[in-house]
Amino acid sequence: MSDERERSVVGTLLVVWAVTFAASFLIPFFIPPTGEGFTRGWNRVAWWFWIQAGAGAVGVAAAVVAGRDRRVSARVRLASQLVLAVTLVVAMFIAFLVIGAADSNR
User: Fold this and answer.
1) Within 10 Å of residue 37's Cβ, how many Cβ atoms?
2) What is the pLDDT of residues 69-81, one digit of tens each?
3) Could you give phi then psi for residue 36, rounded to 5 degrees?
4) 3-state class of 45 per DSSP?
5) Are 20 and 28 within 8 A, CB to CB?
6) Number of H helices and number of E strands within the chain?
């Protein structure tokens, strides 16, 4: 791939990640809660989780594409690495939630 095309692919992936990441917080707000009692509203959490998973996949793709070609500028590479770091922090947060929920059932 040419340098310009590589940068445009990474730039596009970074923009898609930003939109998807922001949407993961906005979309569940507009979804009506379902369920009864304690589980009411968990459908919103599921939406947040799946949209975050999509954003994470895009973030990993941006980091891989940016890291694959050394002709990509340092600024674009740093932006993709920051996106990957945010993705990993969110993944760890989700893992801690799941572990905490599993541990509380003992």
Assistant:
1) 5
2) 777 888 888 999 9
3) -125, 145
4) helix
5) no
6) 3, 0
